[in-house]
Amino acid sequence: MVMVIFSALIFLNFIIAEVSESYAKVKENIGSLIYKERAGLINEAEDIMTQKNKENQVKFPRYIIVREMEE
Fold first, then answer.
1. Per-residue pLDDT, 23
2. How far apart are alpha carbons 3 and 61 in whole angstroms?
3. What is the C-alpha to C-alpha distance for residues 19 and 4, in angstroms, rounded to an integer?
4. Confidence at residue 43, expressed as pLDDT on a 0 to 100 scale
5. 46: CB partners within 8 A, 6+ apart
6. Rounded-to-integer distance, Cα 17 and Cα 10, Å
7. Is the dihedral of CA 28, 30, 36, 40 positive or negative?
8. CA 52, CA 42: separation in Å to the nearest integer?
9. Where are the alpha helices (DSSP H) in 1-71?
10. What residue ranges of the chain have pLDDT lower than 50?
11. CA count, 13 A, side-chain hemisphere, 59
């Protein structure tokens, strides 16, 4: 009985360590994941718009400015 309880504690400790590692990876990349999701939503919204709306130069310029932030 003691061996079963000891094995269960070791197994649970292993599961907690793996979950913590996964959480740390997601937390590290959360900024880029948010921007990627936003870009996908913007793309979907633009695909839904009609061609008449896409001709508006204010909303749809011919160029996009990309800025990179130094960390």
1. 92
2. 68
3. 23
4. 86
5. 54, 60
6. 11
7. positive
8. 18
9. 2-28, 30-48, 51-54
10. none
11. 11
In a 10 Å sphere around its CB, with 0-12 CB exposed, 13-18 middle and 19+ buried, how is residue 42 labelled? Answer: exposed
| Reported pTM | 0.47
Instruction: Report the distance separating Cα 64 and Cα 11, nearest Å.
Output: 51
Q: What would the DSSP string read from start to end of 38-53?
A: HHHHHHHHHHHS-HHH
Model pLDDT, residue 38:
92
Instruction: Specify the residue for token string 């932030």.
Output: 69
> Is residue 54 within 8 Å of residue 46, measured between CB atoms?
yes
What is the reported pLDDT for 65?
A: 75
In one-letter notation, the amino acid at residue 41 is: L
Cα Rg of the chain (Å, integer): 24
- Residue written as tokens 């870009």? 39
Domain ranges of the chain: 2-52
